[in-house]
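Try this one yourself first.
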């Protein structure tokens, strides 16, 4: 009997902990959507909430060879996905020939293609939370790692901090501050770290 009561108590405590965690996440509303969004307004809201740019991928997913290649070589690879998880809101504006889409999505994607001057596929436009273009690219050879470097360059040029830099969004430890200061001094002197 005591064992049953103990087990029930453990289950009750665990359930309360889960409920409290769920309520905190719900109240904060800060959990980032996973995967690719197809609603542009939702992508802009996510970008504003998480202070991350939108990676708007204009594609013909079922007919465009270069789009399929970009998806396979880069967008589905773990290097890109890890970078995107920390730094991007993923939005796909698809223009398929054989796949079915709702009329609302077709209309939205057509309007966005006109707004951003999309003339070919694949086209990637990096956008801020208001929809202002920060950079533009397409297919790049070299795989996911090279593509991530390319995106970092585009974001850096647009003045957007990238989350994997030590000083972007995190407090540096005293050791990291010291090393950063040493690198800055060495750069001023023209010597290597």
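Now uncover the answer:
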């Amino acid at each position: 009997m005591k064992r049953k009561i103990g087990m029930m108590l453990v289950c009750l405590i665990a359930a309360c902990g889960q409920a409290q965690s769920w309520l905190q996440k719900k109240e904060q509303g800060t959990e980032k959507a996973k995967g690719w969004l197809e609603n542009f307004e939702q992508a802009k809201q996510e970008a504003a909430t998480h202070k991350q740019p939108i990676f708007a991928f204009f594609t013909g997913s079922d007919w465009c060879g270069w789009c399929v290649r970009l998806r396979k070589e880069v967008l589905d690879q773990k290097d890109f996905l890890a970078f995107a998880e920390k730094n991007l809101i993923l939005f796909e504006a698809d223009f398929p020939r054989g796949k079915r889409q709702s009329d609302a999505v077709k209309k939205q994607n057509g309007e966005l293609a006109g707004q951003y001057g999309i003339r070919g596929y694949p086209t990637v436009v990096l956008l801020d939370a208001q929809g202002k273009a920060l950079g533009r690219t397409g297919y790049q050879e070299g795989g996911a790692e090279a593509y991530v470097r390319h995106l970092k360059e585009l974001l850096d040029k647009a003045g957007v901090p990238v989350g994997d830099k030590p000083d972007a969004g995190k407090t540096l430890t005293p050791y990291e501050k010291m090393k950063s200061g040493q690198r800055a001094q060495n750069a001023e002197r023209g010597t290597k770290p």
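Discussion: The CA atoms of residues 141 and 147 lie 8 Å apart. Strands lie at 54-59, 89-94, 123-127, 133-137.
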